[in-house]
Design brief:
Number of domains: 2
Structural class: mainly alpha
CATH superfamily of the largest domain: Amino acid/polyamine transporter I
Low-confidence stretches: 1-24, 534-541
Strand content: under 5%
Shape: elongated
Number of helices: 23
Radius of gyration: 27 Å
CATH topology of the largest domain: Amino acid/polyamine transporter I
CATH architecture of the largest domain: Up-down Bundle
Strand order of the largest sheet: 1-4
Helix content: 55-70%
CATH class of the largest domain: Mainly Alpha
Distance between the termini: 20 Å
Number of strands: 4
Length: about 575
């Protein structure tokens, strides 16, 4: 088994995931899961992106009306990530999201890169919401009859949102769901009214000329990918979901279906009711307030004003929740010693990670001020695609190494026959989307990789505990399977050594062999209270585990240390 001693154990252990918390009340059912997930998706993807996507699908020159196809293709390519995260979230129902899944699977270096990517994604999506807020603010300006400096108003609102997050006013989150749901209902009502009363040009959304080239469809699908960024956000509250093995995956997939139907139906009616060129603002490119243009054209000025006000309120609530979510990534990374410790500081009075919130707010302010809306959307989508690719890879790696990392035991798995095809489709499909998005998305992903590597090498590397990750085990399975088995034995010993004494009593010894995959229980002609290892030995098919324990206890002190455990493990093989 190799010349390992007790002191070597900590350096090569396979660290299990965080234990699920039993302190949270599981009160969220399937309907709640769907509603929460939908509320995290419906926002800038509906109120700002459609006109930009029309121009993108037209090759950046002439807008076309077939943009609904891009939303449909994007949803199709989100399915693998949704399936994979459904599986991961039932294995780690209280872990808090993609950062933990990636860090536990690939280790702290890739975890640092993923954490930065996730932070940038949520931060940019929140900035995108405030850019949408700016686009619709002029309607309120006309209503109140006061000139508003749009840039100043957006930064002022951002400051208020940062302060609210520091104060920890969690009640604000409770109003987000009804706001978003009412906004979606209002838009669907306007669409229904348009279908019933308007002479719609369905050729504008179904003819060959309405889709541009297939490269344009692919690029636009990548561009609107950010619209589905919230589909798996519900995993962050997995510890509060009833029957997570059922409600988590079905809730995620149902919310993806409903959001896709919403995006496709609204954008289809928008382009059929109003000529796509009407959503353009002359030399300034696509309009950033397409919902107002659509609603006003269909129902008149009052209907348009209501839509604009709903857009402002919805974008504000999305930005509020977005800072809350994005600030938790640097907080979690600081907790894992991957970022400076001050980002982990919690305000003594309000109990919130104030420095992480302030830093996120500053980054959002810079994005709002200096980045064009198109670039913000493209960067956010690029980061999200990259994370979804990693999530799909996590499932493949964890499945491949689950014998050595027994903590990975999801309640719900990718349906039989679809694994790993679904995950591979998600990885290669995501890579294709990044390619068609062009250089900006690749630059964004490259910056995350470079910064993450620099931060880890200069700060985190010397501060994190060295552990064997499932990714390292997977690589070793291809190059040195014997080493994988040795590591598996050490991991089983460590998992059973709950008191961290470096020794196991009989009960711990039994637990270690269970962790190795042996069948421990009654056998033929064996008393009911006897514990045996059926068919586990090369030479003796049925052995009392008590005999194994006492035979391995060379110093007869009633305890098995790591060297003695290794000597026993060398003689036998795990079942199957």
């Amino acid at each position: 088994m190799g010349n390992y001693g007790p002191k070597d154990l900590r350096g090569i252990v396979l660290t299990p995931t965080e234990a699920a918390s039993d302190n949270l009340e599981r009160k969220l059912g399937l309907f709640s899961v769907v509603i929460i997930s939908l509320s995290a998706m419906i926002g800038s993807g509906l109120f700002v992106l459609p006109a930009l996507a029309m121009l993108e699908m037209g090759g950046g020159e002439n807008p076309v009306g077939g943009v609904w196809l891009a939303y449909l293709v994007a949803a199709f390519l989100v399915i693998p990530g949704a399936v994979s995260k459904s599986e991961l979230s039932t294995a780690m129902p209280s872990s808090g999201g993609s950062y933990v899944y990636v860090e536990k699977t690939f280790g702290p270096l890739i975890g640092t890169i993923a954490g930065l990517g996730l932070w940038a994604n949520f931060m940019l999506k929140s900035a995108f919401a405030l850019i949408g807020f700016k686009a619709y603010l002029w309607v309120i300006e006309d209503i109140i009859g006061i000139d508003i400096n749009i840039e100043t108003a957006a930064i002022f609102l951002l400051s208020i949102i940062v302060i609210i997050n520091i104060l920890g006013v969690k009640r604000i989150k409770k109003i987000q769901t009804p706001i978003v749901m009412f906004s979606a209902f209002y838009l669907l009502s306007v669409c229904a009214y348009a279908v019933l009363t308007q002479d719609l040009d369905w050729g504008a959304v179904s003819s060959k000329d309405s889709f541009g080239s297939w490269e344009d469809v692919a690029a636009t699908s990548a561009f609107v990918f950010v619209s589905y960024a919230g589909v798996t956000k519900i995993a962050a509250v997995g510890g509060e979901i009833k029957d997570p093995g059922r409600n988590m995956p079905y809730g995620i997939l149902l919310s993806l279906l409903f959001s896709c139907l919403l995006y496709v139906s609204v954008t289809m009616v928008m382009a059929a009711a109003v000529e796509p060129s009407e959503y353009m603002h002359g030399d300034h490119g696509a309009s950033e307030d397409p919902i107002y243009i659509f609603a006003e054209a269909v129902g008149g000025e009052t209907v348009g004003i209501i839509a604009a006000i709903l857009a402002v309120v919805t974008m504000t609530s999305m930005a509020l929740a977005g800072i809350l979510a994005s600030s938790r990534f640097p907080f979690a990374m600081a907790r894992d010693r991957l970022l400076p410790g001050f980002l982990e500081d919690v305000h003594g009075k309000y109990g919130t990670p104030h420095w992480a919130i302030i830093g996120t707010g500053i980054a959002m302010g810079l994005a709002i001020t200096f980045l064009p809306v198109h670039d913000v959307a493209e960067l956010a989508s690029g980061f999200k695609i990259m994370i979804f690719m990693l999530i799909n890879a996590c499932v493949i790696v964890l499945r491949s190494s689950s014998d050595s990392h027994a903590w990975y035991d999801p309640e719900w798995k990718t349906p039989r026959g679809l694994y790993p095809l679904v995950q591979l489709f998600g990885i290669f499909g995501g890579a294709a989307l990044l390619y068609f998005m062009g250089t900006k998305s690749l630059i964004g992903a490259g910056v995350a990789v470079i910064l993450g590597t620099i931060i880890f090498s200069s700060y985190g590397k010397e501060r994190v505990q060295s552990v064997i990750t499932p990714w390292e085990t997977t690589k070793k399975m291809l190059t040195d399977p014997g080493e994988v088995e040795r590591r598996r034995v050490f991991a089983a010993f460590h998992a059973a050594d709950t008191g961290e004494t470096g020794q196991l009593d009989l009960e711990g010894f039994i637990g270690a062999f269970k962790a190795l995959g042996y069948i421990v229980g009654g056998g033929p002609n064996i008393p009911d209270d006897a514990i045996v290892v059926p068919s586990a030995s090369k030479t003796r098919p049925d052995r009392l585990i008590g005999d194994l324990f006492h035979g391995g206890d060379s110093d007869e002190d009633g305890l098995i240390n790591i060297e003695e455990f290794l000597s026993v493990a060398e003689e036998i093989e795990p079942e199957g």
